[in-house]
Description:
The protein is of the alpha/beta class. 47% of the residues lie in helices and 8% in strands. It has helices at residues 5-23, 36-46, 68-71, 85-94, 103-125, 135-140, 161-170, 175-179, 192-196, 200-212, 217-222; strands spanning 28-31, 54-60, 79-83, 128-130. It has a four-stranded parallel sheet, with helices on both faces.
Amino acid sequence: MRFDPEKETEKISNFIKTTLEKTGKSKVVLGISGGIDSATSFYLLKNSIPLKNIILAHLYYFEPLNLDSLTNGIPQENVYFISIKEIVDAMANQLKIDSAIDKIRFGNIAARVRMIILYDLAKRYGAIVSGTENKSENLLGYFTRFGDEASDIEPIKNLYKTQVYQLAKYLKIPQEIINQPPSAGLWKGQTDEDELGFTYREADQVLYLYFEEKQSLEEIKNKGFKYKHSAPYSIS
């Protein structure tokens, strides 16, 4: 699953520039969580377009993160810190959702509220919205429809999660971001890998053999890999 990060960076950069040219837009809105996917997407954007044309939005439910190591150089007026707690809690209350019991429904609301805000900012600035989805999440169905899955452009959707880590190191993304457990921040203590029941490293090996090498599940199983054949994780 290794690849040339320099060539991949150039390829994605050309993709971003070409997409903007086709849409007639010059600005991009990106939700920045402090995680590796959004950080990598941001670094790819700033390698492709002027910093003044990037609008970052940190949409937090609990407490805002210190993103100084990421946002350095971005015009202050282009960086938004917006709490989604009041909106999400109000919607959950109206729908009688107990966040401690029905975490998926609650998390889906949070993801969709975030996308509403990103698209409102895009309208304000005449921009397009960049997503942060990777290939592993897409193939596993680990996303919220019309939430984190919604976007106008997806810079890293062709990369498996383990490849995102390789690219992040090449782009010199701060190590503290690379080291932290992947999480959508939808509830306290939430991590992707705890929910999935396996690590991205484990999943990527199976996904790569199945989708890229076109090996059968039986062939993969015979190599010693364990898998659970089921429907996509969350589509709602």
